[in-house]
Design a protein that fits this description.
alpha/beta, six-stranded parallel sheet, 7 helices
Length: 250
């Protein structure tokens, strides 16, 4: 059996470990990474880096490499590849699982403002504060470079710097860092930069959740972008152990 994991997440790496060590005879695991992050954390087993060339390219890859199970363990906001995976799996007649960590759940004291997109988040900010901690990644910075951001200051955190020429807010300090992040570190970051609004995506998981706790403690409003839906009809599992069990069943 050949399992292809569309990875790049903690869950994808953990699933590769579980499948690599489960002792199933004849099991081959390949993890595919998009290649958008410099120096990614590599999973165990076979690894390929780069795109497939859209739905047609992924469909052909599944057929040519005799993939028996496709697992979409990409980031919850990697919407394009998730829909490509659904179309390619259907075209190649390959079972597909979506591995998605659960989203965050508000607690008492949270001041969350849920929005459906980054542009909607940008339009909301002037009503909430002036010093923004932006943790939505480098790919969506252009959404905060419009006139609605005039007068706002941004602390932007991402793993890699934005591509040259990417529109960014006029007043921005770039912080290059990679999770997991500690609660004490997030508290100090909010305090030292006098942050009064946090902007993030509902990525879920524990690695970046401490910023939500720090914001709650400080009484800071949080703008959260809802995650896009999983393609209709795709079976969803919520942790690597459940995904590994599903592969064993297949």
């Amino acid at each position: 059996m050949h399992v292809l994991i569309l990875g790049g997440t903690t869950e994808g790496r953990r699933l590769a470990e579980l499948l690599d060590g489960n002792g199933l005879p004849g099991l081959r695991v390949t993890s595919s990474l998009a290649g958008r992050v410099a120096g990614p954390r590599l999973p165990v087993g076979e690894v390929r880096v780069g795109g497939f060339g859209g739905v047609a390219g992924l469909t052909e890859w599944l057929r040519t490499h005799h993939v028996d199970v496709l697992i979409d363990a990409t980031h919850p906001f990697a919407e394009t590849i998730s829909f490509h995976a659904a179309e390619a799996a259907a075209g190649a007649h390959v079972p597909l699982l979506a591995l998605r960590r659960p989203g965050w759940v508000p607690e008492a004291g949270d001041k969350w403002h849920m929005v459906d997109s980054l542009p909607e988040a940008a339009r909301l900010l002037p009503r909430l504060g002036r010093r923004i901690f932006l943790t939505t990644g480098r790919m969506g910075l252009a959404a905060f470079a419009g006139p609605e951001s005039d007068g706002l200051w941004f602390l932007t955190r991402s793993v890699d710097p934005p591509e040259p020429g990417t529109p960014t807010p006029a007043r921005t300090e770039l912080l290059l860092d990679r999770g997991p992040f500690s609660l004490e570190g997030e508290r100090e970051l909010l305090r030292s930069h006098r942050i009064d609004v946090l902007v993030t995506k509902d990525s879920g998981g524990a690695a970046t959740a401490p910023k939500l706790t720090a914001a709650r403690e400080a009484g800071i409003p949080v703008v959260i972008v809802r995650r896009p839906p999983v393609p209709e009809g795709v079976r969803v599992v919520t942790d690597p152990q459940e995904a590994a069990r599903a592969v064993r069943e297949l």
